[in-house]
Amino acid sequence: MAKETSEIRLISPYAEGQRWLRGNLHTHTTFSDGKRTPEAVIKDYENRGYDFLAISDHDVFVKPDKYQRMTQMTLIPGVEVSANGPHILHVNAQTLVPPHENRQQVLDEISAQPESFAVLNHPNWLAPLPDLHFSHERMRSLTGYAGIEIYNGVIERLPGIPLATDQWDLLLSKGHRVWGFGHDDSHDVQDVELAWNVVQSHDRRGGPIVAALREGRFYVSTGVEIQSVRIKDRHIVILTNNAMRIRFISRWGVIRHTMDSQAAEFIIPDDPNVRDWMYIRMECYGPRGSMAWTQPIWIEAG
Ligand SMILES: [Zn+2]
Ligand SMILES: [Zn+2]
Q: Are 182 and 220 in contact (CB under 8 A)?
């Protein structure tokens, strides 16, 4: 009897032969409620070896032009749209988008700015006032955002959970193709270098970095370094520098495969049900609780 097989194709955001650049897109300074000046913040990130940084103060557009002279890092213009509702990160902002109570209007105005994109911030922050963080229902009701924060560093010292991969898997599983972002949301020195995005780009300029972010060519890290993510037919191969465990996760957060090693391979089984898996994303666990999260690799009918 002929076995029923499934023709699928894997779609990966990752590319070959690129450099990895590391950066934070969610940073506060004395222009809003941050404790340090932009100069001090920029110097700090530069000293830690970051390649790019966005200053994203609450409803204040801090133009990076005047600070670009003082640093080798690429400064990307940003704002955190904050008043009147849950916070939205506006990356590569050209002008300030007003904090309309109607958050869909905020997202539409961000989308209207060329090469800008929006990230829904800290969904698992237990904010002191309701409505400062996104409920799952609210995120589901909105469209036109590139992703959500799956790790927000400052929540390590605030009520709530820095990690939001639960929210991410729910959105992905319900058909929202959104990327996961990792940010410090730094307000003071103790918040710096808690979580970052590592982008695949051969070019250090802002345009190519932003393009790579929009296309999902990056991973999120709190300390694990990924060397490469490659796909061939039904194989997914991931190489890291320091993972001790790697997990392959599909729709609804189901763990399909775990390997206790620095590198791992997973072959998607030839089974008609794998189409329902929808995606595979990888979580890497490293020393001292460090982690890394890849973007989803989509599973589509062949
Ligand atoms: Zn916020
Ligand atoms: Zn913030």
A: yes
Whole-number Å distance, alpha carbon 224 to ligand 2 midpoint, is 24
How far is ligand 2, taken at its centre, from the CA of residue 262, in Å?
A: 33
Q: Are 107 and 142 in contact (CB under 8 A)?
A: yes
3-state helix, strand, coil in the chain (%, to 5): 20, 30, 45
Which pLDDT belongs to residue 4?
65
Structure token digits, residue 2: 């002929």
H or E element that contains 40: helix 38-47
**pLDDT 10s digits, 253-287:** 999 999 999 999 999 999 989 999 999 999 999 99
Nearest bound ligand to the CA of residue 187 = 2
Distance 175 CA to ligand 2 centre (A): 27
- Domain ranges for the chain: 20-221, 224-301
Q: What is the pLDDT of residues 58-82, one digit of tens each?
A: 999 999 999 999 999 999 999 999 9
Output the pTM of the full model.
0.97
- Ligand 2 centroid to Cα of residue 144, in Å, is 20
Asked whether 34 and 57 are in contact (CB, 8 A), the reply is yes
Contact 299, 39 (CB under 8 A): no
Pick the CATH number of 224-301 from 2.60.40, 2.40.50, 2.60.120, 2.40.160: 2.60.40
Q: Is domain 20-221 in CATH 3.55.50.30, yes or no?
A: no
C-alpha closest to that of 243 among 231, 258, 225: 225
- Tell me the per-residue pLDDT of 218-233, one tens digit each, with 9 for 90 and over: 999 999 999 999 999 9
**75 close to 53: Cβ distance less than 8 angstroms:** yes
Q: Which two tokens stand for residue 8?
A: 């699928």
